[in-house]
Specification:
This protein has about 400 residues and is an alpha/beta fold. A 5-stranded parallel sheet has the order 2-3-4-1-5, with helices on both faces. The N and C termini lie far apart (about 45 Å). The structure holds adenosine-5'-diphosphate and magnesium ion. Magnesium ion binds next to helix 3.
Length: about 400
């Protein structure tokens, strides 16, 4: 028997961390980003730039930033400028300035001792190192909202206005902040906010025709020729549109469909495999959606999952969930958030279709919010969340 050939030519091109060279339908935004930093190629020390990139999950924020990083460092090399682009996902460092700076410094001085320095000392060491190396740095802080949530205005201020305390010297550190929406920035104090609000690049959701182009590009890179019928790309794009134009979801779905084709020894990725793939991802368990939640949003949802798993009930009040959430926070060594904040989380999770929330009539304590899980098993949800929150803890 002939060994089965995979429909994939290069599966890695569908990996969520792969950054393609070409980003269809983001040309305008890429150009704008290059504009904002074009001075760096000619007069790198002249100013420190701050840019915000914002947009929903899967709109290409991370890809646009990383693609730009590759471009600018390559261009800088041509003119012998010592320019670095460092991309840090703040969530991986629990949004903590100290851990972020420690990591940043280690990219320049791997042997620098890890212990015994405060954030302030680390920050001034980084600037000192940049001075020594005559280097310029674009620091991209992805999932910037976790940083703001964790550290508040002061740290953001420190990081973004640092240069002003170095009047007359070359400006070495520019920042790109990447986050889902601008709300966390609006909550910052006035002066910090104003620094960040000048250069905002807003990425809108991809409509179907754009998703089709993005998918076709990826199909050509990742699949063997004529393994993907045209209507399959169409179907995947349609399904991703109902996922609010999420390109990550589209690519993940295409990859899964390919896996089904391989599993059944088919040399064609048929629509049925797409349908199988989508029904294999219970709405809530879509990794991309869970990954997009903030840390406390995850802890809160973990509380919800545990409550329903252990109580075996269908409904719970917000205050009951709050109690379980407080226990979860203790477990992860986190300070629980306020009632108001948690109420907002319920609204968010309900808008995402993960929980159902309804305000019930006057009970003893007045109106209260009754919460239930939508269409997911509590223990599956718990398992899924645990893998995320624990990864972050280590
Ligand atoms: P975000 O950071 O906004 O959540 P990402 O940048 O991670 O989104 O994009 C999600 C996935 O979709 C990634 O695999 C990325 O490479 C891909 N992607 C997003 N936009 C484009 C595009 N315009 N062209 C090609 N691939 C894209
Ligand atoms: Mg991202």
């Amino acid at each position: 028997m002939k060994p089965h050939q995979s429909v994939f030519k290069d599966e890695a091109k569908l990996d969520i961390n792969y950054v393609p060279r070409r980003l269809p339908h983001r040309e305008k935004e890429q150009r704008l980003l290059r504009e904002f930093f074009s001075f760096l190629l000619h007069f790198p020390g002249r100013m420190a730039q701050r840019v915000i990139i914002t947009g929903d999950v899967g709109t290409g924020k991370t890809a646009v930033a990383q693609n730009f990083g590759a471009y600018i460092t390559q261009e800088a090399k041509k003119t012998c400028k010592n320019l670095h682009y460092v991309h840090i996902n703040c969530r991986e460092y629990r949004g903590k300035l100290f851990l972020i700076l420690q990591h940043l410094l280690s990219t320049f001085r791997p042997k620098f001792p890890k212990r015994g320095y405060s954030s302030e000392e680390l920050l001034s060491t980084i600037i000192q190192v940049l001075d020594e190396d005559k280097a310029f740095l674009i620091l991209a802080l992805d999932e910037f909202d976790t940083f703001i949530e964790q550290e508040g205005s002061e740290a953001v201020y420190k990081l973004t206005r640092l240069q002003e305390m170095r009047a007359g010297q070359p400006q070495r550190l520019s920042i790109i902040g990447i986050l889902r929406d601008l709300k966390p920035i609006e909550r910052l104090d006035t002066s910090t906010k104003s620094t960040l609000q000048h250069n905002i690049i807003q990425l809108s959701r991809y409509p179907k025709i754009q998703l089709v182009d993005i998918l076709n590009d990826r199909v050509a890179m990742a699949f063997e020729p004529s393994t993907i019928p045209e209507d399959v790309v169409d179907l995947v794009a349609d399904l991703a549109v109902s996922e609010s134009g999420n390109a990550r979801f589209a690519i993940e779905l295409l990859w899964r469909a390919g896996k089904y084709a391989d599993a059944e020894d088919s040399d064609l990725v048929e629509p049925e495999y797409v349908r199988k793939a989508i029904s294999s991802i219970a709405p809530v368990l879509r990794k991309s959606e869970i990954a997009s939640l903030g840390f406390h949003e995850k802890l809160f949802l973990l509380g919800v999952a545990r409550l329903f798993k252990e109580s075996r009930r269908a409904y719970a009040s917000l205050s009951e969930i709050e109690e379980v959430y407080a226990v979860v926070c203790e477990e992860f060594d986190e300070q629980p958030l306020s009632h108001i904040q948690l109420w907002k989380y319920v609204q968010l999770l309900s808008a995402m279709g993960i929980v159902k929330a309804e305000v019930t009539g006057a009970g003893i304590r007045g109106r209260s919010t009754r919460v239930s899980l939508s269409s997911v098993s509590a223990s599956d949800l718990e398992k899924e969340l645990i893998t995320f929150v624990e990864k972050k803890e280590r």
